[in-house]
Specification:
The complex is a heterodimer of chains A (about 250) and B (about 1100).
Chain A: E1 18-29, E2 37-48, E3 52-56, H1 63-70, E4 78-83, E5 86-87, H2 93-103, E6 104-108, H3 119-129, H4 134-147, H5 163-175, E7 181-185, H6 193-210, E8 213-217, H7 221-224, E9 229-234, E10 237-243, H8 248-251
Parallel strand pairs in A: 3-8, 3-9, 6-7, 7-8
Antiparallel strand pairs in A: 1-2, 1-4, 4-5, 9-10
Helix pairs in contact in A: 3-4, 3-5
Chain B: H1 3-16, H2 18-54, E1 62-66, H3 77-84, E2 90-103, E3 106-116, E4 127-128, E5 135-136, H4 138-141, E6 147-151, H5 152-157, E7 168-183, E8 190-209, E9 222-225, H6 226-234, E10 247-251, H7 263-276, E11 282-285, H8 287-331, H9 333-341, H10 346-387, H11 400-426, H12 430-435, H13 447-466, H14 486-507, H15 513-538, H16 548-568, H17 570-581, H18 588-600, H19 602-633, H20 636-639, E12 643-649, H21 661-668, E13 672-681, E14 691-692, E15 707-708, E16 711-715, H22 717-721, E17 738-740, H23 755-770, E18 776-777, E19 824-825, E20 827-830, E21 840-847, E22 853-864, H24 879-885, H25 890-894, E23 896-900, H26 901-904, E24 928-933, H27 941-954, H28 959-963, E25 971-975, H29 976-1019, H30 1021-1029, H31 1034-1070, H32 1079-1106, H33 1109-1114
Parallel strand pairs in B: 3-9, 6-8, 16-23, 20-22
Antiparallel strand pairs in B: 1-10, 1-11, 2-3, 2-7, 2-10, 4-5, 6-9, 7-8, 12-24, 12-25, 13-16, 13-24, 14-15, 17-22, 18-19, 20-23, 21-22
Helix pairs in contact in B: 1-10, 2-8, 2-10, 2-11, 2-29, 8-11, 8-16, 8-19, 8-29, 10-11, 13-14, 14-15, 14-16, 15-16, 15-31, 16-19, 16-31, 17-18, 18-31, 19-29, 19-31, 24-29, 29-32, 31-32
The chains are: A alpha/beta (about 250), B alpha+beta (about 1100).
Chain lengths: ~250, ~1100
């Protein structure tokens, strides 16, 4: 429950049970047509609870597609995805929506905040969708935003916030339901290096405190090295996995 | 970058955004369809009405008659007339006489029997057989003096159908005058004693011609060969002269039904002819010109309303197009930002958008033209039903201008509605646009705008000062009299509109725009609301000046004001809605999104509900119009003063020993409680009975223009007062209302006098009428242009038809004779709207020994209220009848003059003043009977009483015919309630016609909503993707889309209901009617709006909810 503050500490424990198991995953666009694109080609991956993983690879290698598959924003062509011991293939669309709302948090490069809602309204929306009372949801949203240093920007519209501030709102929205996995698609891609570092620190803190799993897609080696391990992708497949920890001197 | 690059951008944008362009084209199409449709409809309506009037004229443009009223022409005149009308394509002689005809129990008291030459010129058209449709050569049929042809219209009236076996016979009567001359043996003087006998003749109908087809057949009801009609007419003539022609008919062109003659050309030809005729020989009559004028009067009333409505419905089209264009621009802010970033200047952006709009305009204009033609065609078909004139006469009128106009307007609409969005696009902040930040609402106004505001304030003040300061004919607004005429209100509304709009703009530089615009909006709305809800009927006593412009200004300000009030207060309203919805289970997410979306896209939302606000205002107004009018006639029971039924006989009742028609009526049904018998007389063509409106004994008297064929009636004290002795005695027998009163009755100034006051005044007037010593001054009032030589009916004042009009004689001079004495005359009352109160008239009382009428002068002192009980029951005239039956009887149209018993007895058409003549009658010979019963006026039982009376009178060799030993009696019964019903039916028809317009607006709203919904969804793909990503179920995505539309629709409906009620209150006040709000209709509107919103949003909403979130998130517009 989100009523628990993210300040409640949990230590990251190795050898945890897997939170995400992907096997034989394929994704083809324009299926059956001559110009079919085979974006994911039989991918297998296991992520344990509390892991912080980065996905790297050249443009068009299928990183974002993989992330969309994990987040169930897009339909898979073939293969299985098991999240938190639930085989999502068996879920109906309605159940899947609820599952996504409760288990998965999204953070996008372009933030994807509702432009017509204020910061606090953006953050409280997932709680309202869970059926929480409006007053309680508002209080929790405020609390999370304050913890992320956005206490003085609660009622600003996204257009009135800087990029870093918008991303903090997006992070707050992703965290508020305490999802099992947080998926970040180039979450710092639109930010300068100082702000990126701030956001990455924030991710690390969340990962450490709440034992939430983070999967980040990035082009930035330094960002990737903040994670526990890096999965490299080429042509829709995993080409290699780099295990951390990575030293600061090497990466900065 | 120049025009070329703008073209390139526009071309690509048009090609790549096909669906979105389609919606813009659709919007323009609807707008143009409206414009073209309304134009075609109005033209068609005018044409249909004119055609229905002109149909009776066949191919005749004018006719030439003897200059002496009642005189005849001869066969020899054709040579002179041909020489005088060189432009005529056809001339034919005609002799008409009016005869009664009877077929079984069907009777028509006066049918025109026309004698025409069997080899009439072909330019006048052809007769067609009713059944077979084949051409008829009338020469084959009209072979003797009892053979006639009937028109299909008359045949239908007599209850015949196409399959009737011919020949059949109908009975008629011809008057036969014989004069016995005796010579006084002592003086040697001759004394001529005329004797009138009626000769009953069986006529044989050998064929029935189709009178609904264009051509000569539409002109006649019953024809016989000219020479035989001449024979029958000669019976009325002591010299038995047969060489008589009543008129020569002139056709200036053929095929009038295909192409109507130009009114100006006809007038010019008539004028030319009149100038060239030798004095006292011929005179010209052109019914066609008269009907042009009649059509103009009626059409001015109707087209005023249609134009006002049409303009407002057009506004919805413009709102829709602007909305769609605005959406296009908002949708493309990112691309516009990119274009600006890569070097396109503002002009280029505006250019490329306008090029797109021109293209959309051209296509929309062309499609709109097709739509408009279809709309016009549909309405034309409806008009055929409305006027019942036959499909040949009602064709949609499509002028060439409309075709060109449609495309021009399409382009113009595209450009005009695109300018604002294009300018907005050109001003995008490049950085914001690229970052995807939507331009926000500026809180305060700029300096230029404030200057504009100051200018509006100054203009507004000047306009307000116009009243009483710049124009002294009006009262200034700081005195209470300054608010009591519509002309003053025109300036009040215009001035207040400018002043408050300007003030709002100026204030918005200093205080927040929301507050400033609230002040403007409330003031804009309140001013006309005050006019409609309070001033109309309360302060404004004279509503005759209600012109289209006042209506349009008032309605526009109400609409703009109300729409603006909601627009500036949209955020708090939406916040309240959000707070409500987020408390509801399953709608929390929807509550978070939909209201925020509405208030964040303020311009778009405002334009959307504005469409519905305008349409609903019109719909609600029209919906309230019907029941409100109903309520004004629901007073029938009260207004009819107890009379339920009217019976009229085709001729005065017979003199039967020991009984009378009244006594026989009492015997027929025990529910009959009172029968009031009247004598009436219709002058028809007997000019010696016409009323003179100038002194017939003066040298200035002109028999051609100063005689009017108005009918007469007698009203006795017993008929009206019964046993009552004075005004305050409640025991009146039939105390019906007057709408204009003698000068000695004190009249209140306000037009909204109560029924009780009116009745009191009416009773006082009746007391004066029956006071044999009462006389009233003649006033310096003139008769309308109706009597001038060109008979221009457009100047006729129809206000007499509209009930009480206040003291009409205030400030009018009385007439004096040469010695300076005020001219005073005995009085008559009238139900004719053309005779003004105070007019001096001369009525032919009887014939002198020289055979010329003896005239008596009267003053017109009172007008019977033709609104009460659906018109004075004795008068058959009603606008409703003309419109519904397309049958225009000029004599009925003019109404009657009512004389007291004393004066009626001085005539030999209502009595036997100087011996018995063909028109005279005994004191107890009545022809019109008002019947009171124990039933309510709406009771169905009255129908059976009416039937009993008709059976009693109209059955051969039985009942009354047997009693009178005369099978030529026919009774026509009318239920008083049915006359109201027919008026009501006409109102409903007219309203249903208006409903077509407003319903069309509703369709525009529906399609518009679908367009807006599709655009909304396609533009918000990314947001929908976000919603799905953070866990919005499909249902809530769909509900969000739907809710936005429903909320906007309902806002429009609420504004519409409030405005509609306010405007209708004004109309109801004006008509002294109780406003009735048809809640069930409003419920239907609510249902309709919800349904439109749901169905318009359902499909795009469904698609939206099914877009894979990943795909939706990639959308960049």
């Amino acid at each position: 429950m989100a009523t628990k503050s993210i300040q409640k500490k949990h230590s990251v424990t190795q050898n945890e049970e897997p939170i995400l198991v992907i096997s034989g995953l394929h994704k083809r666009y324009s299926e059956g047509k001559s110009n079919e694109v085979h974006a994911i080609r039989g991918l297998d991956l296991t992520v344990r609870k509390g892991d912080m993983m980065a996905i790297m690879g050249p443009s068009g290698c299928g990183k974002t597609t993989l992330l969309n598959m994990i987040g169930h924003l897009d339909r898979r062509s073939e293969g299985n995805i098991v999240i938190d011991s639930i085989d999502t293939a068996t879920l109906s669309d309605g159940k899947m929506t609820g599952f996504r709302r409760d288990k998965i948090g999204f953070i996008f490069q372009l933030f994807n905040l509702f432009p017509f809602l204020s910061a606090v309204e953006n953050v409280e929306t997932p709680l309202l969708l869970k059926g929480m009372k409006a007053g309680v949801a508002r209080e929790q949203a405020k609390m999370v935003l304050r913890e992320l240093g956005m206490g003085d920007r609660l009622y600003h519209l996204p257009s009135e916030l800087s990029g870093g501030q918008q991303q903090r709102v997006a992070v707050a929205r992703a965290l508020i339901t305490e999802p099992a996995i947080i998926l970040g698609d180039e979450p710092t891609g639109d930010l300068d290096s100082t702000t990126s570092a701030d956001v990455m620190n924030l991710f690390r803190r969340i990962n450490k405190l709440n034992r939430q799993t983070l999967v980040l897609v990035t082009h930035n080696r330094w960002i990737a090295e903040q994670c526990d391990y890096i999965v490299h992708m080429t042509d829709g497949k995993i080409s290699r996995v780099e295990q951390g920890p990575f030293t600061k001197e090497e990466t900065q | 970058m120049g025009l070329k690059s703008s073209f390139m951008v526009a071309k690509r944008s048009l090609w790549r955004r096909k669906t979105k362009n389609l919606s813009a084209i659709l919007a323009v199409t609807l707008g143009v369809t409206l414009l073209v449709g309304i134009q075609i409809t109005t033209n068609t309506l005018e044409n249909a009405f004119l055609t229905s009037l002109l149909q009776n004229e066949g191919e005749v443009d004018f006719s030439v008659v003897n200059a002496t009223t009642g005189g005849y022409l001869t066969a020899a005149d054709i040579a002179n007339i041909s020489a005088l009308v060189p432009n005529a394509v056809g001339i034919m002689p005609e002799l008409t006489i009016d005869v009664p005809i009877m077929l079984g129990s069907q009777f028509d008291s006066s049918v025109e029997l026309a004698g025409i030459s069997t080899d009439f010129p072909e330019e006048f058209g052809t007769f067609y057989d009713w059944k077979t449709g084949d051409e008829i050569d009338i020469g084959d049929y009209l072979t003797d003096n009892t053979t006639i042809l009937l028109s299909s219209k008359l045949a239908e009236n007599l209850g015949l159908d196409k399959d009737v076996a011919l020949p059949i016979s109908v009975t008629t009567e011809f008057t036969n005058l014989t004069v016995s001359i005796t010579v006084d043996p002592t003086t040697g003087n001759y004394t001529a004693t005329p004797t009138y006998n009626t000769e009953r003749v069986e006529l044989t109908v050998v064929a029935i011609f189709d009178s609904s087809r264009p051509g000569i057949g539409s002109k006649y009801k019953m024809i016989m060969a000219l020479e035989y009609v001449q024979q029958w007419r000669s019976l009325q003539d002591t010299t038995r002269e047969t060489n008589c022609i009543s008129s020569y008919l002139i056709a200036l062109k053929t095929d009038h039904f295909t192409t109507e003659i130009d009114e100006d050309y006809l007038q010019e030809q008539v004028d030319l002819f009149e100038e060239s005729i030798p004095e006292d020989t011929y005179s010209v009559e052109s019914n066609r010109l008269t009907f042009f004028s009649v059509a103009e009067i009626v059409m001015t009333l109707l087209s005023t309303m249609l134009t006002a409505l049409g303009l407002l419905v057009m506004v919805t089209g413009i709102l829709l197009i602007t909305n769609v264009q605005l959406m296009s621009v908002e949708d493309r802010e990112f691309q516009t930002g990119v274009l600006r970033a890569v070097g396109e200047n503002r002009r280029g952006i505006v250019q490329s958008i306008l090029i797109e709009n021109v293209f959309q305009g051209i296509l929309g204009g062309m499609f709109g033209l097709i739509g408009g033609l279809a709309f016009g065609q549909a309405v034309a078909l409806y008009l055929v039903e409305l006027f019942g004139t036959g499909q040949h006469s009602v064709q949609p009128v499509v002028s060439q201008e409309i075709v060109i106009l449609a495309v021009i307007v399409g382009v113009a609409l595209g450009i005009i509605t695109g300018i604002l969005p294009a300018l907005r696009a050109s001003r995008v902040n490049i950085v914001d646009a690229l970052r995807g930040i939507k331009s926000s609402f500026e809180e305060k106004s700029g300096r230029n705008l404030a200057l504009l505001g100051i200018l509006a304030v100054i203009t507004g003040v000047i306009v307000l000062l116009y009243n009483g300061v710049l124009n002294e004919a009006y009262q200034p607004i700081w005195v209470s009299e300054g608010w009591n005429t519509l002309d003053e209100w025109r300036t009040i509304l215009t001035g207040a509109g400018l002043l408050f709009s300007g003030a709002g703009i100026v204030l918005s530089r200093f205080i927040s725009r929301t507050k400033a615009l609230n002040i403007t909006a409330i003031a804009l709305w309140a001013a006309p609301v005050f006019l409609f809800a309070v001033a109309m009927g309360e302060w404004i006593t004279d509503i005759t000046g209600l012109a289209t412009d006042i209506l349009i200004i008032g309605v526009t300000e109400i609409l703009v004001g109300s729409i603006l009030i909601v627009a500036v207060n949209l955020p708090p309203v939406m916040n309240a809605l959000r707070n409500l919805l987020v408390k509801m289970k399953g709608l929390k997410g929807v509550g978070q999104i939909a209201p925020a979306l509405i208030s964040s896209h303020k311009s778009r939302s405002t334009l959307t509900y504005a469409i519905f606000a305008v349409i609903m205002t019109l719909n609600v107004t029209v919906a309230i119009l019907v029941p409100t009018n109903l309520s004004s006639v629901n007073q029938t029971g009260e207004d009819s003063r107890g009379v339920d039924l009217i019976v009229s006989l085709n001729k005065a009742e017979a003199q039967i020993a020991n009984t009378s028609y009244v006594e026989e009526l009492y015997k027929l049904d025990s529910h009959i409680t009172d029968v009031i018998a009247f004598k009436t007389y219709s002058t028809t063509t007997d000019y010696t009975k016409f009323v003179a409106v100038n002194d017939p004994y003066s040298s200035e008297f002109n028999a051609q223009t100063d005689l009017l064929p108005i009918g007469y009636g007698e009203i006795t004290s017993d008929q009206i007062r019964g046993n009552a002795t004075d005004t305050y005695d409640s025991d009146w027998r039939y105390d019906f209302y007057l709408s204009s009163f003698p000068d000695s009755i004190t009249q209140p100034l306000e037009s909204d006098v109560s029924d009780e006051e009116l009745l009191d005044m009416s009773k006082q007037a009746w007391d004066l009428f029956f006071n044999s010593s009462y006389t009233m001054a003649a006033y310096n009032v003139s008769l309308d242009a109706l009597l001038s030589e060109d008979r221009d009916l457009s100047d006729v004042d129809l206000s007499g038809l509209e009930g009480y009009g206040g003291n009409e004689l205030e400030g009018v001079e009385v007439l004096q004779d040469e010695n300076g004495n005020v001219i005073e005359n005995p009085v008559v009352f009238t139900d004719s709207f053309i005779l003004p109160i105070g007019l001096q008239i001369w009525i032919p009382m009887n014939m002198s020994e020289y055979g010329v009428p003896v005239y008596q002068a009267f003053t017109v002192a009172g007008r019977l209220d033709s609104n009460r009980a659906g018109g004075f029951p004795l008068s058959s005239f009603s606008v409703g009848n003309i419109l519904s039956e397309g049958d225009f009887d000029f004599v009925d149209f003019l109404g009657k003059i009512y004389l007291t018993e004393y004066w009626a007895n001085q005539t030999n058409f209502l009595a036997e003043a100087n011996g018995k003549t063909s028109t005279s009658r005994a004191s107890n010979q009545y022809d019109c009977f008002l019947i009171k019963t124990t039933y309510d006026i709406e009771d169905q039982e009255l129908e059976s009483i009416a039937q009993t009376i008709e059976e009693f009178t109209n059955t051969n060799d039985d009942g009354y015919r047997l009693l009178a030993s005369d099978n030529f009696y026919v009774a026509s019964t009318t239920l008083l309630y049915s006359t109201v019903e027919s008026t009501l039916e006409m109102t409903e028809r007219v309203v249903s016609f208006l409903q077509i317009y407003v319903t069309f607006g509703l369709v525009i709203g529906a399609v518009g909503m679908a367009v807006i919904s599709v655009r909304n969804v396609s533009e918000r793909k990314r947001e929908i993707g976000m919603m799905r990503a953070i866990g919005f179920p499909k249902t809530q995505v769909m509900i969000s889309v739907l809710l936005e539309l429903v909320v906007l629709g309902v806002i429009g409906l609420v504004i519409g209901i409030v405005n509609g009620v306010v405007i209708s209150a004004g109309f109801a006040n004006m008509q002294n009617a109780t406003m009735i709000i048809p809640w069930s209709d409003l419920g239907v509107y609510l249902g309709f709006i919800t349904l439109i919103a749901l169905s318009a949003g359902a499909i795009p909403g469904w698609f939206a909810s099914r877009i894979p979130p990943a795909e939706a998130l990639r959308y960049v517009g």
